Amino acid sequence: MHENFSLKPYNTFGVDVNARYFAEVNNVEELKEALDFSKHNRLSLLFLGGGSNILFTRDFDGLVIKLNLKGISIQPLNENEALVTAKAGESWHEFVMFCLDKNLGGLENLSLIPGNVGTSPMQNIGAYGTEIKDIFVNCTVLNLETFETEIFDLEKCRFGYRDSIFKREGKGKYVILEVTFRLTLGSHRIKTEYGAIQAELEKSGIGNPTIQEVSQAVTSIRKSKLPDPKEIGNAGSFFKNPTIPLAQFEALQREFENIPGYPNEDAVKVPAGWLIEQCGWKGKQIGNVASHKLQALVIVNATGEATGKEIYDFSTEIINSVKEKFGIELEREVNII
Asked: Is-catalytic flag, 120?
């Protein structure tokens, strides 16, 4: 247990804040000990995975627990499917690479997403036509009130767009210990119709891609568009792509002919990056904070010296300008502390 512990290395924005107490746990027993300490001292709790989807705007006056639970197991179901279970502390991208090395399909479109396995169901992470819910079986959680383990299946998790029960009524009530996915062992379902995957594969002369080649294409695209947090502080996409009523989209089309949209029944999803770019934010810097020069959806700690409040205030200015120009209110995807 550490006191007045710097969290700068533990958040991908590189914001320099302190935790009143900090503990890194490697198994459930150590986790329960840390939880006992927090209960005894009436401390607020915060669990950290990869620190890739969080913005600290202040010091944390409580106990931060870094989950370092590790381990991956494979249980074949039949000749074409297997259940793969990963502990919460496993790096998401390294887990995806592990599965691809074993020729296990289903996660390839989610390559190079930052963070750890344990936080993937919270966000229902997704990219290029795949979301966690598509291959999710269940997750084992620890009830923070009873200290009992529980199983949450697909229905119980109530997944939505970058959303789950763990961000709503279950927030602060559970910690995810491990996640199980149903992956393919053969006859993989290749998805290349989203984003620039097909074009990236064609550049390499690949017409009938393997899951490994899809992963390589996704990785290449992400590296070309998204900055490496090790080089410049960021949390990936800062905002959700808004979904608006069809009638509102059609009205916007009359004013902005080239506005992109992806219809879904009587609603349309609009790329937040496009909206932000149209408001002149792409590459714009104010003080220590900027919108990334290649992807307006990404806010960066441009100087490495930005405070969480500076980053938050910068995001507020973006929200206000998009609301003023398009009448659409962007929602932050990043968790604000």
From this structure: no
Catalytic annotation on 333? yes
pLDDT one-digit tens code per residue, 270-309: 999 999 999 999 999 999 999 999 899 999 999 999 999 9
162 given a catalytic annotation? yes
Residue of 215, 237, 291, 315 marked catalytic: 237
pLDDT digits (tens, 9 = 90+) for 45-88: 999 988 888 999 999 999 999 999 999 999 999 989 999 999 99
Q: Given 131, 178, 310, 333, which residue is catalytic?
A: 333
pTM score, two decimals?
0.84
User: Of 111, 162, 200, 222, which is the active-site residue?
Assistant: 162
* CA-based nearest residue to 229, from 55, 13, 50, 51: 13
pLDDT in tens, 109-144: 999 988 899 989 998 988 888 999 999 999 999 999
The better pLDDT of the pair 264, 291 is held by 291
